[in-house]
Write a structure and sequence with these properties.
Layout lengths: L1 E5 L3 H13 L3 E5 L2 H10 L4 E4 L2 E2 L2 E2 H11 L4 E6 L4 H9 L4 E4 L4 H16 L5 E4 L2 E4 L4 E4 L2 E3 L3 H12 L5 E2 H9 L10 H16 L4 E6 L3 E6 L1
Parallel strand pairs: 1-2, 1-3, 3-6, 6-7
Antiparallel strand pairs: 4-5, 8-9, 9-10, 10-11, 12-14, 13-14
Helix pairs in contact: 2-3, 6-8
């Protein structure tokens, strides 16, 4: 899952980022209105943590911009402003939740988990594909009730495919989603090929009733057998 933190306070931004990285999320950050606007225009996110008061602009305008782009990212406002009017404005513009500073990181993590469940899994933690059970919260894969060990990137890739079953996923979209900001440092997409190759072998060896098909020259597609 990919999260964008829009927060100008460096210490808080770094604290949230470190905590979410420990939870195995892919995390990107923006420290002001301009950089945040660029990111939400160019990329897609599963959840956005949004401060209202930002250098060069207002977070509520970013919510308006998301709406204009037709994007449905889960947005949790994190702001020191606790006036009812601000909450109502944010929710009316499409925010999914509102957390007033100061807050415990554990509560923020729980809020993120809750909005992601509502969006992708109808409030559940598991996805069932054939004889495969993917537990999003525990980050586990079971085939016929037997555990299949996946490394972090393999699980991230499988999770992304499960959210886009039967849809063509381009190599660039997959790389940007799983590797986030670090993708700019890559010279090619060979690293995706090797992760996909390893993931395929694990699915085949466990007799999983799903497979990753290659659409040559374009990308991949997850199908149920």
């Amino acid at each position: 899952m990919k999260i964008l933190i829009i927060e100008d306070e460096a210490e808080l931004r770094e604290t949230i980022q470190k905590s979410l990285l420990k939870e195995k999320y892919t995390v990107e950050t923006a420290h002001d209105f301009t950089s945040a606007s660029d990111k939400i225009t160019m990329y897609n996110y599963d959840c956005i943590l949004l401060d209202i008061m930002l250098p060069n602009g207002n977070g509520l305008d970013l919510l308006k911009h998301l709406k204009q782009l037709g994007k449905s990212e889960n947005v949790i406002i994190i702001s020191a402003k606790n006036a009812l009017d601000d909450k109502l404005k944010g929710l009316a513009l499409g925010a999914d939740d509102y957390l007033t500073k100061p807050f415990h990181i554990a509560e923020l993590t729980a809020r993120i988990t809750a909005v992601l469940r509502r969006k992708y899994f109808n409030g559940k933690s598991e996805v069932q594909l054939g004889n495969c059970t993917i537990n999003i919260q525990e980050r586990t894969l079971k085939v016929n009730q037997h555990d299949v060990h996946l490394n972090r990137k393999e699980f991230d890739i499988l999770n992304y495919f499960s959210l886009n079953k039967n849809r063509l996923i381009t190599k660039s979209a997959l790389a940007e989603y799983v590797w986030g900001d670090h993708i700019d440092q890559a010279d090619n997409f060979d690293f995706i090929y090797y992760q996909i190759k390893n993931l395929r072998k694990k699915l085949e060896d466990s007799n999983a009733e799903m497979a990753i098909e290659t659409v040559y020259g374009i990308g991949y597609k997850l199908i149920e057998k």
